[in-house]
Amino acid sequence: MKSFKKMVALSSVLLSVFVLAACGNQKSAKNYTPKELNVQFVPSSNATTMEAKAKPLEKLLKKQLGIPVHVSVSTDYNTIVEAMGSKKVDVGFLPPDAYTLSHKEYNTKVLLQALRFNYIEPNDVFGTHLQNHYYAQILVRKNSGIKSLKDLKGKKIAVQDTTSAAGWVYPVVALKEHGININKDGIQTVQVKGHDQAVLSVYNKDTDAAFVFQGARNLVKKDAPDIMSKVVPIYTTDGIPNDTITVRGDMSAKWQKKIAAAFKAIIKTKQGHEIMSTVYAHQGYKDSKDSDFNQLRKYEKIAESLNK
């Protein structure tokens, strides 16, 4: 009997230790304090080129935050989401679609939304008005004979990952609203990495059309000076929330504020502005919250329904 009582007592002690440890882990899980910061971009153009342009951000962030910073570029939308979920990436420059996915799967926290200059057509120049949204377009070759969305039936289209708002979701929903199913109607989709590659695929006649963000043709002007006259938009979608600066779900509230403040301060400096405007055309940042992406979630559900 004495042995049994000792075992019960010991079990109670061990259980108490386990509960306290679990509570401690739960608490720390919501208060992650980084000793170094891993920041990752999603490629909107050639990943190697982007990383070279973004690397100087490391020193600027280190100066603001006081800890080592490592900047890299992911291979695609999905890898950065998984990297944030596995805690390998602390801060992600997530497009809106990647943010909604990461929030759903890993409870990531959106801090900021990018501000960009408005894009003016048909002059193909940027204005001076800052906005927190952008548009997707469907591009074709000017002499292709494709004049409307219905003409895309039976054609080959360059697209991004199916989580991409501009490279998939919004154009696909636009097609559906015009009675066209991307998975039917004889349409062949070709997934490419980067909106620059999508534009060039149309330019080089590898595809008949491309889903890209408005202004993506500017990415290839150096390689294809006549891109504006050879490749033209036939459709512009509804507005899409601008990309985000998002942190892993267990980042402490204190560090969320520090990181947000750091990026706001950096983009106001000459070097910081040059980096962010060159890499992503960011001109500034505004505070953001999860509900800012509810309309996007609606579009994503519509796009997903086409696979059923």
UniProtKB/TrEMBL annotation:
Classification via SUPFAM superfamilies: Periplasmic binding protein-like II (SSF53850)
Top-level taxonomic group: Bacteria
Keywords noted in UniProt: Signal
Signal peptide, first to last residue: 1-21
Keyword Signal (UniProt): yes
Protein's UniProt keywords contain Signal: yes
Recorded family membership: Belongs to the phosphate/phosphite/phosphonate binding protein family.
NCBIfam families hit by this protein: 3A0109s03R (TIGR01098)
Listed name of the protein: Phosphate/phosphite/phosphonate ABC transporter substrate-binding protein
